[in-house]
Structures are given as C-alpha cells and as structure tokens.
Amino acid sequence: MIRPNRFHPNPETAADNRFQSQSAVSADEIAENAWREFDGAVARLQAEGVQVHVFQDTRDDTPDAVFPNNWFSTHPGGHVAVYPMFVPSRRRERRGDVIDMLKDQYRVQVVTDYSGLEQDGLALEGTGAMVIDHIGRIAYVARSHRADPILLERFCTNFGYEPMVFDAVDEDGAPVYHTNVVMTIGTHFAMISLDVIENNTRRAEIAERLAEPGRDVIDLSHHQIAEFAGNAIELSTPSGLITAMSSRALAALDKGQTGVIERSTRIIPLDIPTIEAAGGSVRCMIAGLHLAKRNSTLGKAPK
C-alpha cells in the first residue's frame, strides 16, 4: 500500500472515471484527511492479522499514488507484472523500490515489464483493468481505454490466463473505466453487477464461469456499484479469510448479500470517504501479494 503525499482527485483521469467527485474543502484538508484515512485503514488491516507493506509517496505530482494495484501485480510461481498506464500523471507512480522489496522478501523469478508500450499508446492498468480469477485462471476485463486488447492477449499468454472480455456501461450508458469497480472475486463468492454487461449471452456466460468452482454469485445493483460495493478484496489472515471493503460499500449491501459473504469470510469495513472521491476504493488501494515469502526474511517492511 502507498501512503499518499499530495492526494486529490486527479483531473487527468476524470474524463472517463465517473466515480470521481469534487470536494469543497481546501487541498491541504483533502490531503490531511486522506492521510488519516489511509493510516486508519492500514492499522485496521494489521489488527486483523494482514501483513501490510507500506511505502510513502514523496512526489507532489502523483495524486493517485494511493492506488498501486494499477501499475503492478504479483502472481503465483514468482511472477510480477509492471503495467503501462493510460494518463501521464499515473505513469510517475511506478517505483523501483517496491519491486526491489518484492525481490528481497519474496521469491520473485520473473518481472515482466509492459510499461514501455505506453510509447505505442497501449495501456493495461493492472488489477483495475483486470479482475483475475486465480482458481479458474480467467482474467475478466471490461473494454475501456485502460485495457488494450492486444496487450491483454499478450499478458494472458505470458501469465496463463484466459481473457474474458465484455462491454460494461453504467446506468447512464457510459462505459465503465475499470473492471474492478463492477466485480470482485473471492474464494467462495463473487460480487458482480450483471446489469452493466450489455450482451445477454456474455452476461449469462460470465455468471456461469464465476459460479463454476462452487462460488455463490452476488448480483449487485447499479446503486451498489456507485457506492463501491464491487471494489472489495478478499485477504488472508492467520485466523482465516477476510473481505475488506469501504464502510460506504458495506452500507449499500443488504443483509442477504452480507450473509453470503460471511459464510466464508469476515467483513472488515474501512472508512475512506476522502480517498473514494478520487474514483477508487479499498480494492484499488491494495496491491495483493501472491508470492512465496523467503525463509530468511526478518524484520519489518520499509516505511
């Protein structure tokens, strides 16, 4: 997770991110509120037994640095991917010290860096553009400027996933900017807004594929998606699985939906209203680790 420095909703990404909103408070207040929310989220996750590696953003020109899942991802077998970003300000978020920490503390075999393809106008914004089913080996992707189909095919070939691409639009008919705002996949459940998928045949196919491993599929409404209910993440702790989501997202779910989630995980709500104004929520803040830890690793993660 990346602790923000000068956090604020990014005007460069507002063109296709309809989840963003503006605040009436000053820039300093926005940044301070984001710091408090971030620190509170980290503390809550750590209290639940989640190991969190925290890095401090030090730049003034990376307002979305708090969302690192877009520029890198990790995968079983020691694989790491680094991604090309759609807008220039987000390209500045990539940092070598994060990758160096992964190599030092985890068994990293290969780092595949696609970021040079930005020069060709290609973007694939990590686990924002792709929601990955690690059990079914499927990468679900809503078509957008942030998920180039050529690069997606290359990634899926390199990493051994089947691409499952679909058109997704919000209640007003505008394309969804990132796949991970409309769906999340856990071990025993998945949440998705099936209504956003335009093609009826594709909609049914995706629901079937999500359910294949025996998962419960929770259908989310347009309103629940707007409240970031789709932007959750399942995490492992020493005492079992948890599902982290924002307090706003949890409030949007009904008792039947939370009951399905709680059959296999505990729900951990995080209060991040300021950070959500930038158009992302809890899932976007967490770059998940799917790497084996080195036995010799000691001490705390860098701050």
TrEMBL record:
Q: Which Pfam families match?
A: DDAH_eukar
Highest rank taxon of the organism: Bacteria
Q: Where is this region: Disordered?
A: 1-23
Q: Which SUPFAM superfamilies match?
A: Pentein
What's in the keyword line of the UniProt record? Transferase
Annotated InterPro entries: Amdntrnsf_FN0238
Q: GO molecular function, one example?
A: transferase activity
Protein name from the UniProt record: Amidinotransferase
- Protein's organism: Pelagivirga sediminicola
Q: What is the lineage of its organism?
A: Bacteria, Pseudomonadati, Pseudomonadota, Alphaproteobacteria, Rhodobacterales
